[in-house]
Amino acid sequence: MLFNSHVFLFVFLPLVLWLWWRWREAPRWRLILLMLASYVFYGYWSWPYIGLMVLSTVIDFHAGQRIHVAPDKRRKRRWLIVSIVANLSILCVFKYASFALANANALLELLGVASGARLGPFLELALPVGISFYTFQSMSYSIDIYRGDAEPARDFWSFGAYVAMFPQLVAGPIIRYSAIHEQFRALPRRLRPATAYLGIQFFVLGLSKKLLIADMVAPYVDALLQTTGQTELLMSWLAMLGYTLQIYFDFSGYSDMAVGLGYLLGFSIPQNFDSPYKSRSISEFWRRWHMTLSFWLRDYLYISLGGSRGGQLKTLRNLVITMFLGGLWHGAAWTFVVWGLWHGLLLVINHLWRRTRIALHWTVAWLMTQLAVIVGWVFFRAEDFDMARRVLKSMFGLGEIDASQLLGLCANLYARALAGLGIASLPSGVGRMSYLLVFVPLGWFIALACKNTWEHRPGATRWKSVALALLFVLCVLRLTQPSPFLYFQF
């Protein structure tokens, strides 16, 4: 089920909220309601895959209990290994098995092994939506109990509601159990007007990011990237600048909606984005982009590898390994691996540069950071290496758009501006470029000059309420067809 759908906005959400606050005197039943409603939310996409989530939940709940009561470190570690192996096995089978077999067969072919010795058949399994998010979230519970950073859930319903919690189930933010268990133990009995307004504000602004910015740009970005040739420099840059905005407003929009839904249920969900395109270094970018994943990778992977202990070479190694696995987490494709390694290399360069104590002017630092991020997005977006190569060649080297095309573009842009942009009738490449020449600068202005959702002052005013109502109406009018979020595929 999608947040940006009629069934969610006008059936599922009102019903769940009504039952949630009606049962305010029955905390256990409220948690059962949240868990079962989340299963309905998830099962709306595919009922059979609810079983995977239930399996992960049961294993980690019991593993957490056993870790907590185990009398010695050895037995605690044994149950921790059970939890980690179970979660990673589920993730590997459904997300990476086909990828691993395909690459193993390619390697056998490269080595000249007879075709009869190939591995197979390939596992053609549909990727369960959000499996990377809820397995990481569930696994962190066991690790935190092992480290002594969290207490075990008091009952299965609390843990089941934590794992399946529908506001952030399929695309985060990734929540630690230690950050929410106290909220589960003291469920609010009434929804304060200020909290309700804050939830509506987050949800409507997030919905607007998705429908009025990301989805408006997406079809023109996709069309330009499919037709980009090696001499169309302007077209390639417009497409990648547009995609850079699309993925930000799409994903941060989902995160804002998740936070808003959390407020409407009386929960506090952590921030996931903090204006990442204002960053002046790649390390700052990762402190601002997909913050809960960045902190997860830092706390459970980078630090476990040794972090910055053990000297500079090991620190740099740990950075590269962490980002390599972070890239692989995003998808079973070599383009994601390269994207992760690219950011690992950037973090290594950033780490070494800081040791020189040479300060760059903020504009130079900002431009270099954004350029590095955009180049990385090429691999993240590309369907294969051929597409990545084609787009990068177009962006960096083989000719400009000629004068006649540029004049035609300007004339087209002027005509579209006079005609109200004619969004539905832009079939040509020049038409797509003229559209993006308006909306890409506007989107970057919003990303750089405007406050992000977390920076808006809380509290209702007449004009803010009117603006939110108008935005919501515009969003509802845009609900003409399903529009999944980009991070659903991860």
Could you characterize what this model shows?
There is one protein chain. By secondary structure, the protein is mainly alpha-helical. It is globular, with a radius of gyration of 24 Å. The protein has helices spanning 6-22, 27-43, 50-69, 73-110, 131-147, 156-164, 181-185, 193-227, 233-265, 282-288, 291-305, 312-330, 334-356, 362-381, 385-396, 403-418, 429-449, 462-477. It has 2 domains: 6-190, no CATH class; 196-396, no CATH class. It is built from 18 helices and no strands.
Question: What would you say about this model in short?
Answer:
This protein is an all-alpha fold and 490 residues long.
Regarding quaternary structure, how should these chains be classified? single chain
Structural class: mainly alpha
Give the biggest sheet: none
Compute the number of strand runs: 0
Q: Helix amount, in percent?
A: 55-70%
Any low-confidence stretches, pLDDT <50, length ≥5? 399-407, 420-427
Give the rounded overall mean pLDDT: 85
Task: Give the arrangement of secondary structure elements.
Elements: H1 6-22, H2 27-43, H3 50-69, H4 73-110, H5 131-147, H6 156-164, H7 181-185, H8 193-227, H9 233-265, H10 282-288, H11 291-305, H12 312-330, H13 334-356, H14 362-381, H15 385-396, H16 403-418, H17 429-449, H18 462-477
Keywords:
490 residues; 2 domains; single chain; 69% helix; mainly alpha
